[in-house]
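dude i think i finally got it to work??
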Amino acid sequence: MAATENSAPLLLDVTRQIWRRWEGVRPTGIDRICDAWLEHFAPRSQAVIITRGRQVILPLAASRALFAALAAPKSPKGSAAVFRRKLIAIALRWGWCWLRNLDGKGRFWLNAGHTGLHNLDLVDWCARANVRPIYLVHDLIPITHPQFCRPGEDAKHVRRIQTVLNTASAVVANSRHTLRTLTCFADQAGLPVPRAVVAWPGCSSLRRATATDRHDMPATFVILGTIEARKNHALLLRLWKRLIATMGEACPRLVIVGRRGWEADDVFALLGHEDFRGKVIEAGTLDDAQLAEVLGRARALLFPSYAEGFGIPLVEALAAGIPVIASELDVFRETAGDIPDLLPADDEDAWIATLMDYAGGSSARRERQLERLKDYKVPTWAEHFARIDALLEELS
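look at this
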C-alpha cells in the first residue's frame, strides 16, 4: 500500500451514516449533525467503521469513495437501493482492507454518531490503533431518563459514556446542559472529564418559499420529532380531546410530524382508535420543503418534551420565525432565552390556556413572542465548526 493511502490528517467515523443510509430512513437531528461533520471534515479525513467484532480504518482511496457515496443527494425514492449498490461495489473493490490494521498514527478520530461506542473492546482498540478520539456527546437521556427509552438502552449508554470518558482526547458537547450532565455522571463514576468545548449545532433552513395563507384555514399547531414517550405526545392528545369537547369545530388542528418510535403504545392506540374529528393529523415523515410549508402555517411549534440534549426542532422553528410553546427545560432556556413560552410538561390547564390564546385570531401572547423573536440569533454551522477547529488546533 502506498504511503499516501494512510496519510489524511484526520479520521472520521461514518458508522451511523452507513446503516442509516442502508436502511433508507429520513434523517433525525443526530443524522443531520453527522452529515454536517461529513461535509466539513471528509476532505481531510480517512473513514473509520465500527462493527460488533472489529474497528477498521479505511485507506484514503476507499474512504473517498465511501464519503462520496454517503454525500450523494438523497432522492425521495430509491436512495437506499442506490446507496446499497454503491456500498457493495466499494466492498468488492476494497474488502481486503478489512483484514488490515492501519496505524492511526496518533491522529484525531472524530466521532459524532455514538454508534458502536458500547462495544467492550473499543477502549483497547483505541490504544492498539493509536487514535486520539474526539467525541460529540448529544445527551445522556438513556441514563437520566431510562423510563422513556428502549429496555436495556440505559446499560448500553452507560458503556458508551464510559468509553468516551476513558478514551477521549476531548469532548464536544452540543449544549452546556449536556456538558453539565456528563460532568455529573463522571463525578459519580469516579472518572475524569477530558478537555471539553460546547458547540451548538447549526440548523436547517425551514422558511417557506411563499407566505400566502388562506384566511379560512383553521388554526394549526405542529409537533415535530419521533413519536416516543419522551416527546410527550400523550399530553397533546389529552389536550386535544379537551379542546374538541370545549370548542367543537372551532378547535385548532394538531399536525404530528415524525415517524413512530418506541415506548409510546398509548399514543399509537389513541391515534389508531380515538375519534379526533379530523383535528389531529399524523403526517409521518416529511422532507424539508414539506416541513417548511407545514411549519410556516402553524400558530406555534409545540415541544412538550420531558428531556432534551439540545432540541433542534425548537431552534429550527425560531429560525423560521415560528413561535414555540415548550416544556420548562434548562436547555431550552440556554438555547432560546426568554423567547419561547415555557410551561411545565405536566400542567394540562396551563397548556390549554396557552393553546386557546394562541389559536385566537388576535393573540397578545403570540404577538409578544413574535416581538421577542426579532432578537433571536440563529446558531450556525460556521460557529459550530469554528469551535471544533480551534479545539483541534489547540490539541495539536
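The CA atoms of residues 150 and 262 lie 7 Å apart.
im so relieved honestly
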